[in-house]
Design brief:
One of its GO terms (cellular component) is plasma membrane. It comes from Methylobacillus flagellatus (strain ATCC 51484 / DSM 6875 / VKM B-1610 / KT). It is built from eight helices and four strands; from the N terminus they run H-E-H-E-H-E-H-E-H-H-H-H. By secondary structure, it is of the alpha/beta class. The protein has two domains: about 110 residues, P-loop containing nucleotide triphosphate hydrolases (Rossmann fold, 3-Layer(aba) Sandwich); about 70 residues, Helicase, Ruva Protein, domain 3 (Orthogonal Bundle), CATH 1.10.8. Helix 1 runs parallel beside helix 2 and helix 5 runs parallel beside helix 7.
Length: about 200
């Protein structure tokens, strides 16, 4: 039996396509326009609590920019930057503004609410700003059901409930778990049930 099927599959690489939108449709729409269509909005600031998808979107945009050669810089967790790094980001902002480049930055709160240098906070507030909202349990449940249906998989509610209560709750990890469970079900020729999920998790540790 292939070892791959004994392990929880690693999450897929973050992309704009596999980002579960929830209440963040406007931000996702604008990111697509900025990164893929090169529209006039060149500076975007994303903010919100941990788990709302900031890092996913930053990594997805950075990968697209790298693949296409787009002059764009992506900076995650600006609130963690040292004073020297904030000065460097301020200078970079000005350089990109002059050169026609693009900048996407993320942080925990609005630029003026994180104790950043005033000059940097002002620059970040000049561009478009979007608050990202984490998915509710209901939205996660529906997204996982849709994913399972697309695979032709019958996913009992008790399996979903267990995943949300006991496993990593970020969507890439949850989707990877569902995918691994589906493959384990096919290999073992058993229906998807909570005992089967627990067996898979025990085998993968």
């Amino acid at each position: 039996m292939k070892q791959l099927l004994l392990d929880i599959q690693p999450p897929a690489a973050p992309s704009l396509d596999n980002f579960v939108t929830g209440r963040n449709a406007e931000a996702l729409f604008q990111l697509r326009r900025t990164v893929l269509e090169h529209d006039d909005a060149r500076f975007i600031y994303l903010w919100g609590e941990t788990g709302c998808g900031k890092t996913h979107l930053i990594q997805a945009c950075n990968a697209l920019a790298s693949a296409s050669g787009l002059d764009m810089i992506c900076v995650d967790d600006v609130h963690l930057l040292s004073n020297d790094d904030q000065v460097a980001l301020f200078d970079l902002y000005n350089q990109l503004r002059e050169s026609g480049g693009r900048l996407i930055v993320s942080g925990l709160a609005a630029p003026s609410q994180m104790g950043l240098r005033d000059d940097l906070a002002t620059r970040l507030a000049w561009g478009l700003s979007y608050q990202l909202h984490p998915l509710s349990d209901e939205e996660k449940t529906q997204a996982l059901k849709n994913h399972a249906e697309a695979r032709g998989m019958k996913l009992p509610d008790e399996v979903l409930d267990y995943c949300l209560r006991h496993l990593r709750r970020d969507m890439p990890s949850l989707i990877a778990t569902i995918d691994a469970l589906d493959e384990w079900s096919l290999i073992s020729k058993r229906a998807v049930t909570l005992p089967l999920l627990k067996q898979l998790l025990q085998t993968s540790t």
